[in-house]
Amino acid sequence: MLVAFPFTDLSSAKVRPAAVVSRPIGEDVVLAFISSRLESVDRLAEHVISPEDAGFTDTGLRTASIVRLNKLATLHHGLVRRRLGRLSSSSRSAVAEALRYVFELDRT
Length: 108
Hints:
Strand 2 (13-20) and strand 3 (28-35) form a beta hairpin. It is built from two helices and six strands; from the N terminus they run ββββαββα. It has 108 residues and is an alpha+beta fold. The model has no long low-confidence stretch (mean pLDDT 93).
């Protein structure tokens, strides 16, 4: 998705890619921030998507990017500008694992 993603202090927003990380919640959607700045804050809470990855072209991203699962926002679906693409199944699995880490959910 391409969405107006808010800054954490809510001072402004910037249009950027985001990954949907939940089922729809009424008219809202939970999104994870995607950045092309690959500096890591917490590798276990992030997933790097690289042009060398299978399915990269399906993501709609233009360059290597990092999905930050420690930067989530619940936003009204009206803020979504357009759909960019789809994460590969291996990226979706890595995102799920990072979400388990972020929310301290035990694997069963």
